[in-house]
Structures are given as structure tokens and as C-alpha cells.
Design goal:
By secondary structure, this protein is α/β, with parallel strands linked by helices. It has a domain at 2-166 and 209-232: Rossmann fold (3-Layer(aba) Sandwich). It has 12 helices and 14 strands. The chain has helices spanning 9-20, 35-38, 53-60, 75-80, 82-103, 136-155, 180-189, 210-223, 240-251, 275-278, 288-299, 324-327; strands spanning 2-4, 25-28, 43-46, 65-68, 107-113, 159-164, 166-168, 194-197, 204-205, 207-209, 229-232, 238-239, 257-260, 269-270. A 7-stranded parallel sheet has the order 3-2-1-4-5-6-11, sandwiched between helices. Helix 1 (9-20) packs across helix 8, helix 7 packs across helix 11 and helix 9 (240-251) packs across helix 11 (288-299). The longest helix has 22 residues, at 82-103. The chain starts with a strand and ends with a helix. Bound molecules: nicotinamide-adenine-dinucleotide (NAD). Nicotinamide-adenine-dinucleotide binds at residues 5, 7-11, 29-31, 48-51, 69-71, 73, 88, 92, 111, 113, 141, 164, 167, 179. InterPro entries: Epimerase_deHydtase (IPR001509), NAD(P)-bd_dom_sf (IPR036291). Belongs to the NAD(P)-dependent epimerase/dehydratase family. This is NAD-dependent epimerase/dehydratase family protein.
Length: 328
């Protein structure tokens, strides 16, 4: 089996889960493998940049199942560097899909994101909800989905797509924006008020523990329908006020919020209708209360504080004027 992006946050958990199931796993990633992942039984590393088609073909050869997780996972990075985001997510995914076709891979599972829906028009959202991404990240993930689905229809690529809602668990990068669960815990474990932007009652999310997400991905590989898209969430709606309460209960000390409601940009409900996933016989096992307790234990007292803020918009750049030589 291959896991692209297996050196990253979700990928590391998936590689661990597959190794525990006794699978032989090749991690395709342009980054170094963390030592604990490299030491797992049956795990090897094939270094490749998926923007390069030759490297992609070589790295995927011999795979029967491919989990494609590599890419940019940050909306903020996509706003700052949209071409970089597009290359990683759209071009990289096209390369993986085409390589899987050429190499006769039997199953490709693509980890997409609920970001492709854009601003929700209804809640909970089923997979047929319209897709109008408002961030370049959403557009590049959707482009990856559309490319793979078109390869399924035009050439029989055996692909299944999962759209993850908000993932949390050990190993998240605190310098990346998003991921309210670990951010809330990090501020609170430092005995500081938790900064929140928006309306803490109207801003509701669907949190899925990373180990449940990996279980769902394995289910898609085993039983997902070719060409089908599945929401990957808990199906449970939690407001940011409820999350703060749960953080307080998990740590035995009430959480304080420092609310900035000057921007209501993402104060909406982002909750999955998970009935299609449930019909495959999978439902998440880790309740938020348990997940918070175990994550608080892993983070320990005074963990590193989150540093990034979510950015949805940037100043329009100065108009660029090229000289003839530079334009060539
Ligand atoms: N973390 C989340 O909250 C979340 C939510 C929904 C969907 N997703 C999706 O899950 C996937 C994994 O997310 P994550 O949080 O683990 O991200 P991550 O940034 O922790 O890991 C991504 C991995 O991909 C590798 N990678 C990136 N570009 C590559 C390239 N061109 N060639 C080879 N390797 C490359 C990186 O080195 C890294 O190890 C992403 O596709 C993301 O869109 C994540």
C-alpha cells in the first residue's frame, strides 16, 4: 500500500494504523519521515515530489492501494500563495490519478476536504450540497476531486473520495491556522483565555478524531463505491461555546474565551450528513470528551501556543509591469 503525505499530520496516523493491521506501507512524501513512523514494522519511505510525474510514477509502482493525502492543507497558505497551493493539490493529484491508471492500481482513496462546499447553504450538509469554494485551497481540492472523477468516468480509475470535516488529534502543527480543538486546548493549557473570532454560538463545527478519520479512510478503501464521494465527519454539531465548555470539563478547570466578533466571516454551521459513510458500516468511535482528554494528556502543561491566524482575504497586489526581457 502507498500513503502519500505519510509524513504529515493525518498521514502519520494512517501509516501507523495500516502497520498495526500488518500491511506493508510505502510512504511517498518529499519530507523526511518522523523517526517513530520510520521505525514502524513494514514501513518504507519513497521520497518523491508529486508535482513531478516521473517521480510520481516511480514512487507508486507496485502499489495495489493508494491513499492520497499529500498536498497543502492550509487555507491561509493558499490565500498567500495560490499557485503553490494549486501545484501541490491540483497538479499533484492529477499526477497521482494518472499514475494509478498507468500502473493498474486497484484502489485510490483521495482525502479531500469539506472546504470544497464553501459557505454552507444547509446543515447538515450531504455530499450533493453545491460546491462553491471561497478559498484557493477549496478550489484546488475540488479540482483534484473533479480530475479524479473524470479519470474514473473516462478511463475507469477505481477512485473513492472522502471529504474530511475538522480533524483533531495528536501531532497537529501549532503554527498552522484552523483546528479549533487543539488550538483551544493549547491556549487553555497555558492558563490563557482562548482567542476566538466570530459568533461563538452560530459558529458550529463537526469535529472528527484523526484515528476515526483513518478508520473511515480504510473503510473507503475496503468498501467505498468507485467514483463515489463520502463525507468524513462525526455528524455531531458543536458550537465554539460548547467546545470551550468541553475543554473546561476535560481539564477540570473552566475555559475562558476572549471573543472578537468584529468578523462573522465563518460564523456558520459546518456539519456533515454522514449517512452515506454510515451505510458502509462505519461510525466514529471517539467522542469529543474522550478525544479532548487524551489530547490534553499528550500536550501536557504549557504546550507550544498556536501562532497562525486564519486569513480569508489579502490586499489585491500592486499591478505588476513586466519589462520585455522579464516577460520572456
Ligand atoms: N488537517 C486537516 O484539518 C484536514 C482537513 C480536511 C482535509 N485534509 C486533507 O488531508 C490531507 C493531509 O492533511 P494534513 O493535515 O496531514 O497535512 P500536512 O501538511 O500535515 O501533511 C501533508 C504532507 O504532504 C507532503 N507533501 C506536500 N506536498 C507534497 C508533494 N508535492 N510531494 C510529496 N509530498 C508532499 C508534506 O511533506 C506533508 O508531509 C491534505 O490533503 C488535506 O487537504 C486535512
Amino acid at each position: 500500500m502507498v500513503v502519500t503525505g505519510g509524513a504529515g499530520f493525518v498521514g502519520r496516523h494512517l501509516v501507523t494504523a495500516l502497520s498495526r493491521l500488518g500491511k506493508k506501507v510505502t510512504v511517498v512524501d518529499h519530507a523526511e519521515l518522523p523517526a517513530d513512523v520510520a521505525a514502524l514494522p513494514g514501513v518504507r519511505h519513497a521520497r518523491a515530489d508529486l508535482r513531478d510525474y516521473g517521480e510520481t510514477l516511480l514512487a507508486l509502482q507496485g502499489a495495489d492501494v493508494v491513499f492520497h493525502l499529500a498536498g497543502n492543507a492550509s487555507g491561509t497558505v493558499s490565500v498567500e500563495k495560490p499557485r503553490h497551493d494549486f501545484h501541490l493539490n491540483a497538479l499533484g493529484t492529477c499526477n497521482v490519478g494518472n499514475a494509478c491508471l498507468e500502473l493498474g492500481v486497484q484502489r485510490l482513496v483521495y482525502l479531500s476536504s469539506a472546504i470544497v462546499y464553501g459557505t454552507p447553504r444547509s446543515s447538515p450538509m450531504g455530499e450533493d450540497h453545491p460546491t462553491h469554494p471561497f478559498l484557493p485551497y477549496g478550489a484546488s481540492k475540488l479540482s483534484g476531486e473533479l480530475t479524479l472523477r473524470s479519470l474514473q468516468q473516462s478511463a475507469g480509475l477505481p477512485v473513492v473520495i472522502g471529504r474530511s470535516f475538522v480533524v483533531y488529534g495528536p501531532g497537529e502543527d501549532p503554527s498552522r491556522a484552523g483546528g479549533e480543538v487543539s488550538q483551544f486546548l493549547r491556549w487553555h493549557l497555558n492558563e490563557l483565555p482562548i482567542p476566538v473570532v466570530g459568533d461563538i454560538d452560530r459558529k458550529t463545527r463537526d469535529f472528527i478524531h484523526v484515528e476515526d478519520l483513518c478508520g473511515a479512510l480504510v473503510t473507503l478503501a475496503d468498501r467505498g463505491r468507485d467514483g463515489e464521494t463520502y463525507n468524513l465527519g462525526s455528524g455531531t454539531e458543536v458550537s465554539l461555546r460548547e467546545l470551550a465548555d468541553a475543554v473546561g470539563k476535560a481539564t477540570g478547570r473552566p475555559a475562558l474565551l476572549d471573543v472578537d466578533d468584529s468578523s462573522l466571516e465563518d460564523s456558520f454551521s459546518l456539519v456533515a450528513d454522514v449517512s452515506r459513510l454510515a451505510a458502509l458500516g462505519f461510525s466514529p468511535a471517539i467522542r469529543l470528551a474522550e478525544g479532548l482528554e487524551s489530547l490534553a494528556a499528550v500536550l501536557g502543561p504549557f504546550p507550544e501556543l498556536p501562532t497562525a491566524k486564519a486569513v480569508f482575504r489579502k490586499e489585491r497586489p500592486e499591478r505588476r509591469r513586466l519589462t520585455e526581457a522579464a516577460a520572456c
